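Bumping with the actual sequence this time:
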Amino acid sequence: MPTPHAWTTTPITADLVRGALDLETTEHGVRPHRLPAWARAQCPDPQLAMAEAQPSGVRIAFRTAATAVELEALPTRVVYTGGPPRPQGVYELVVDGRRVDGAAAPGGTTVAVSMATGAREARPGPAGTLRFAGLPDRVKDVEIWLPHNETTELVALRTDAPVEPLPDRGRRVWLHHGSSISHGSNAAAPTGIWPAVAAARGGVELVNLGLGGSALLDPFTARTMRGTPADLISLKIGINLVNLDLMRLRAFTPAVHGFLDTIREGHPSAPLLVVSPLYCPIHEDTPGPGAFDLDALRAGRLGFRATGDPAERAAGKLTLTVIREELARIVAQRQAADPHLSYLDGLDLYGPDDHAELPLPDALHPDAAAHRRIGERFAERVFASGGAFAPARG
């Protein structure tokens, strides 16, 4: 164990952080954001504010010979009054591409949200320190993956040897946007969310814009993606539009076209993949809005249900079946002028047979095992030879 004077404190700056689009300076340190400040200002929605500030896919990355690393952080955790307890976020240590440790940060602020009224009450707490020791005594690439399910302010990075930003390893950058499943809901740890699993298998650098409850074809999200450097781009569209009952088919079709048009303004020839919804029985043929399942809550677990009427599909209400059909049609229409655009049916990643084996525990989100399966399937179908993101030959 190094003596106290042996520690080196390194400022946490943008060149040490990957997967974030903005670092906000706070009174304690820096808070990673996955949407830039101008985009956050265009939508004063508490759900979006919480989702984009949870650093899903964000990691501190550096090269060092250190054998011990400390990260001081101030997490903010959300708990739901009257609901079951939520798991604490995990900070995972990855060395030379291999996960070697993980822990929750002690201390932190708690935000209690009433499930009945939506009212929020903040209960401030102190920052805590995570310590990872016994690392190999050699130069190595180190990543600390931040929690996907709670916000964090990064206060200090301390090591027993100097650090330098991780150099460019020549990997392609994959920019992905999706709903809470892409965000990582019900995954056990940040490297276990399905986009992280797929990125590791595909050998790419992930920028994850999976935004829980907020994959809503928002123009500011499209403009953010337009301006974000990326080699590969994917959009997973559908479930949030159904469970929020946000729009009808008449609005959905031009909104998808507009979203794709905006991305293409900044990335005219990058491989662009549209992914339709995974299998979710409550919304396959029943529109939203979605709601909490009170029977599940009374049994001490979180659950969701659909409250719409299947007959309303004829009036243009969206279901997952409708969205899959329309996304396939839109992509086929656009492919004549856009040869780098492709479509992946979400049922190929998680379908009825998968649900029979690995059911959605809350009727909406996959569990940790299903996240891994979805990520592996995505890598097999998209990053492998013949896939939309297969490396170019030659």
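The tokens above came from a reply further down the thread. The two ends are 49 Å apart (CA to CA).
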